[in-house]
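Suppose you are handed a protein chain with no further information: no name, no annotation, nothing but its sequence. What can you learn? This example shows the usual starting point.
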Amino acid sequence: VLTTNTRIGEIELQIHGLEQEFQSLKNEKQTLINEYSKLQQEEMELSVELKDKYGEGTYDISTNQFTPTK
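A reasonable first move is to predict its three-dimensional structure. Written in C-alpha cells, the prediction is:
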C-alpha cells in the first residue's frame, strides 16, 4: 500500500511538472505569435513608405533591382 501511495505521489509530481512545462511552451508560443504580428505590421508600414517614395513597382531580391510599373 505504501509503495502504491508513493507511486501516486510521484505521478502527481510528474504531472505538475509537465503542466508547468506545457504552460511555459504556451507562453513562448504566444510571445512568438506577438513578435510575428509586429513584424508583419512593420513590413506593411515599410511597404507603404517605399511605395510613397518610389511609386509602384517590383523588387527583385536576387539582383537588388527595382523596376517601376509603367
